[in-house]
Amino acid sequence: MWARAPVLALVLAFLGCLPGCALLRRPPAPPAHELEVTATAYNSLADQTGPGDPRVTASGTTLRPGMRVLAVSDDLYEMGLRFGARVSIEGVPGEWVVEDRMAPRWKRRIDVYMGDDRPAAERFGERRVRIRWQAP
C-alpha cells in the first residue's frame, strides 16, 4: 500500500491543479471584428470574373453552386478577411467563407457567391450590411 502513495500523491496533485492548470486552459479566442460594408452578389460566369476559369477562385477553390463563398476587396483582405475566414452577414443566413478577391478598384466591399443563378444575384442587388468575422 505504501508503494502506491507516491503515485496517489501525484494524481491528487494533478487533480488539484485542474482548475488553474495552464496546460488545460484554452488560449483566448481572438477578438471578433465587425464592419459595415457594401455587399453585392456574383456568379460563376466569365463576364463576372477575372481571366481564367470562372469557377476557380483566387485561393484555388473550385466553386460549385450552393457553396457559401465570399470575395472581398483588397482593403478588407488586409484587415484580416483572409482566405478561410468565416463571416456572418447581417440579413443573409448562414456562415460564409472568404475564398476569392475582388478587382482592386473596390473598397470595403464583399461579393456573395450565387452559383450560376444570375437572377438571384440581380435580386440581391447592392446593399449595405454589417459583417462579423474572426481571422483564421
Radius of gyration: 23 Å
Query: How are the strands of the biggest sheet laid out side by side?
Result: 1-5-2-4-3-6
- How far is it from the N-terminal to the C-terminal residue, by CA? 52 Å
Under the CATH scheme, the architecture is Beta Barrel
The number of helical runs is 3
On the 0 to 100 scale, the average pLDDT is 83
Helix content: 10-25%
Biggest β-sheet strands, sense, barrel: 6 strands, mixed, barrel
CATH H-tier superfamily: RlpA-like domain
Number of domains: 1
Question: Structural class of the secondary elements?
Answer: alpha/beta
Could you tell me the CATH topology label: Barwin-like endoglucanases
Number of strands: 6
The arrangement of helices and strands along the chain is HEEHEEEHE
List low-confidence stretches.
none
Question: What gross morphology would you assign?
Answer: globular
Percent range for β-strand residues: 25-35%
What is this structure, in a nutshell?
This protein has three helices and six strands. The chain is of the alpha/beta class.
Q: What are the SSEs and their pairings?
A:
Blueprint: H1 5-17, E1 33-42, E2 69-72, H2 74-78, E3 86-89, E4 92-101, E5 109-113, H3 118-124, E6 127-134
Parallel strand pairs: 1-5, 2-4
Antiparallel strand pairs: 1-6, 2-5, 3-4, 3-6
